[in-house]
Design goal:
12 strands; alpha+beta; Enolase-like, domain 1; binds iron/sulfur cluster; globular
Length: 341
């Protein structure tokens, strides 16, 4: 592991300043070389593996961002959960405000292990880097995410745990967060605090697709810190289904987060996130367009799932995924709506 400078901050402004001030810039040559760290469950692995070598780590684990507030929303939002980015996955999963929100609770409890959920923060979870084995092996020279223009070893190698949506031959990296898949289905927003102030954007707009720019994971600008998630509580039924090789401590082969409300047999509201298939937490807008405002039926669910996966980019290792994803989505639409024919 390369040597690095460590500093701990106690408030958000100090955190942002710590990765953007001249003092830190001088210490580490370039400001981008400084990075935030909280739970560290992914970052320390990357540092140990020699994949990532920040000059300065700014420890934000003691920032006052560990609360869950229940607020009245604006406009169409009813209740909104405002969740500090330093809340751990375990604490959010057992919070009373999440008890009736199955899609959120299950996306947390079906992820990682109890030990990791006790350490990992929700801010870090949604910003986690890809698990691509070639990206995480510095002896592999072909990786457009690490070295733009070098190629993609996964396209020629074993690619079972890779993406089929939002990818091309330049990078097929999967975004592995379960939580983020639930968040896009819930129309959640992320609140950012940076050198130019505070801004809020949909979680669905936070990540960058691999087929747009494999080298870039998200749209954060240098020094920007995720401070909160804003999660509207929908007037709808919700659920999260995760399909994986073993029953615990495993990433999704496919998953589906569904938020739906059926009125008089018609899908009055539907929002879908797909996991295990996208280079970003995948909002299934094509499927939603097929479903919205139409009488709920298994045939309609099949039509919607097929539309969403129609343009999947597959390789020999991932060619099972579109069919598995279609079945996962149909099953979860059926379970959430309780439509069986
Ligand atoms: Fe690198 Fe992306 Fe290819 Fe993995 S899939 S080796 S992250 S370019």
């Amino acid at each position: 592991m390369h040597p690095f400078t460590y500093t701990r901050v106690d408030d958000v402004d100090a955190a942002v300043a710590a990765v953007t001030t001249d003092a830190v810039a001088r210490a580490v040559q370039v400001p981008e070389d400084a990075a935030f760290i909280a739970g560290g469950t992914t970052q320390l692995d990357l540092m140990r593996d020699g994949v990532w070598s920040p000059g300065t780590l700014v420890d934000i684990s003691r920032l006052p961002l560990a609360d869950v507030e229940v607020e009245d929303g604006d406009g169409d939002d009813g209740t909104v959960l405002v969740v500090g980015a330093a809340v751990t996955m375990a604490d959010l999963a057992r919070h009373a405000a999440v008890a009736g929100l199955d899609v959120l609770r299950d996306s947390l409890l079906l992820a990682a292990s109890p030990q990791l959920r006790a350490m990992a923060t929700i801010g870090g979870n949604v910003l986690q880097r890809t698990r691509c084995r070639y990206f995480r092996d510095p002896t592999v020279s072909q990786c457009n995410k690490r070295e733009p223009g070098s190629g993609c070893a996964a396209v020629e190698g074993t690619a079972r745990m890779h993406a089929v949506l939002g990818v091309d031959a330049g990078c097929i990296a999967l975004h592995a967060s379960d939580l983020a898949v639930a968040l896009v289905a819930l129309d959640a927003r992320v609140r950012l605090h940076g050198p130019d102030g505070v801004r809020t954007l949909p979680v669905a707009d936070l990540h960058v697709r691999a087929d747009d720019d494999p080298a870039r994971d998200n749209v954060l600008t240098p020094g920007e810190l995720v401070t909160h998630l804003e999660i509207p509580v929908p007037d709808a039924r919700t659920g999260y289904l995760k399909v994986r090789d073993r029953a615990s401590y495993e990433f999704a082969l496919t998953s589906a987060a569904v938020v739906a409300r059926v009125e008089d047999g018609v899908l009055a509201h539907v929002a879908i996130g797909l996991g295990g298939v996208g280079s970003v937490p995948w909002r299934a807008t094509r499927a939603e367009e097929v479903l919205r405002g139409r009488p709920a039926s298994l045939a309609l669910f099949e039509e919607a799932a097929a539309a969403e996966l129609a343009d999947a980019f597959t390789l020999p290792g991932t060619d099972f995924k579109p069919e598995l994803a279609r079945r996962t989505l149909v099953r979860q639409l059926r379970d959430v709506t309780e439509v069986t024919a």
